[in-house]
Amino acid sequence: MARNKIFGSFAEAVADIPDGATIAFGGFAGPGTPYNLTKAILEQGAKRLTCIANTTGGAHQPRMPDIGMLVENGQVAKVICAFTAATRPTDQLPFTPYYERGEVEAELVPQGTLAERLRAAGAGIPAFYTPTAVGTELAEGRETRVINGREYLLEYALPCDVAFIRAWRADAAGNLQYRLAQRNFCPLMATAAKLVVVEVEEDILPAGALDPDHIHTPGIFVQRLVKIPPAPEGLWTVRRQERAR
Amino acid sequence: MSATGTKGWDRQQMADRLANEFQDGWIVNLGVGIPTLCSNTDIGDRDIIYHAENGVIGYGPVLPAGQEDLHLVNAGGQNVSLHPGAAIVHHADSFGIIRGGRIDVTVMGAYEVSAGGDFANWKLAGQLGGGIGGAMDLAACAQRVFIILEHTTRKGESRLLPHCTLPVTARGVVTLVATNLGLFAPNGGGFTVRELAPGVSFEEAQAKTAAPLTTG
To answer: Is A106's CB within 8 Å of B129's CB?
Structure first.
């Protein structure tokens, strides 16, 4: 009996995500970002979430649903990401004041370490050594080891309960293809999470319609697919302005 | 600034000066901000491949509004083009390329650079948390780290220092620094002046630098 992975709505696809879940959000500067699933969990209202992503959402406009909005909505206990502040000191992330007031916890992780911690979680590797962040404040008090004359920092795998990702194409078996820079963290998060929910841009194809040689995320990692409806009901990537003013 | 005959380099000229150091065949990673200007530099017939941390290998110039592909961005979120021969990988492979030592040079902005080749670019004084992005991975693992920054703060304080006062991004990795005053190389005790921008004297550069400058 084939499993049905196709869900009719985002609300249905996130309905059973419990309070306290650890959720990874794909995306990097737009492409691959699961705006529709983020909006759905905002409306669903799960609380005490741990959110894993590259950023909590930028200072750019127009603002799309992001982790910063979940923080504003009182749904987040902790974020794990590569930025808790904007790259330009003159910009402010919507998230930052909540963090500074102590209303949400944050674990700041170098981007490559974040990616590798997710990859490790999906690949059954509990921890690894990396040269990144050695000699910095992030390494203070933590375990390091000299291997072949170079110092490395111990980092642990980062498993997730749920991953929200966006893909270009999918088939009914859950096989995914990303287009261009959409790929970013999405395939890694798909392997690291127990429940993978995907918002899909193109019509979901019958199983067998995608070439097995050109699958980026195999369907064995994917449990739920939702086709993004046309705007305005569905949220599509929009051209963004460089910074909020 | 120099374009109008006054002294010093503007931001594009600082970027041009570092881009002129890129050698044929290099794989180059440009950080957000002024370093992205390096991709505007005319590199002649040198074959340079630009790598973006989000897994875009072989990107080209930023496309004008209306021509961009919203699925394609560089590390700064700009909608770029692709050169023939480009390839896409996921984030773990992109940082595997970085940690694996395949990046010949990374060019980054910074708040401070030290005589020992340390630099700071992720956290301001008194700030909780910060913005690391891919900077620590690139700084620790690229073959070379070049820095572009204004020589002094808005208050006129030197950003080239004996030791960094802010939390560092990596230690002992910077080999070349372009500022509005010239091109400098950390040498342990201070900075070696590789070149001064037009109209800038050694005395002026030294007066604006909180570490000893030497020539040649």
So the answer is: yes
Nearest-angstrom CA–CA distance, B175 and B212 = 16
- Classify residue A163: in a domain, yes or no: yes
Report if residue A238 sits inside a domain.
no
Q: What is the pLDDT of residue B2?
A: 43
CB pairs under 8 A between A and B: 152
A231 contact partners, CB below 8 Å, separation of at least 6: none
Q: Which CATH class is domain B2-215?
A: alpha beta
- Tell me if A112 and B68 make a contact (CB, 8 A cut-off): no
CA atoms within 13 Å, Cβ hemisphere of B135: 31
Indicate the number of domains in chain A: 1
Using one digit for the tens of pLDDT, what is the confidence trace for A75-85? 999 999 999 98
* Nearest Cα to Cα of residue A195 among A166, A226, A155, A163: A163
Burial of A142 (0-12, 13-18, 19+ CB in 10 A): exposed
Largest Cα span, chain B: 51
Provide the shortest C-alpha distance from residue A157 to chain B (in Å): 13
d(CA B62, CA B68): 8
Q: Which of B73, B132, B167 is nearest residue A30 as measured by Cβ atoms?
A: B73
Question: A78-92, A149-163, B89-103: which has the minimum mean pLDDT?
Answer: A78-92
Query: What is residue A244's predicted lDDT score, i.e. its pLDDT?
Result: 36
Given a cut of 80, whether residue A240 has pLDDT beyond it is: no
Q: Distance, in angstroms, between B106 CA and closest chain A CA?
A: 15
For chain B positions 7-46, those within 8 Å of chain A (CB to CB) are: 32-33
What number is the ipTM of this complex? Answer: 0.95
Name the residue ranges covered by the structural domains of chain B.
2-215
Name the residue range of residue A115's domain.
Answer: 10-124+158-227
Instruction: Give the residue on B whose Cα is nearest the Cα of A99.
Output: B128
| Predicted local distance difference test score (pLDDT) of residue A185 | 98
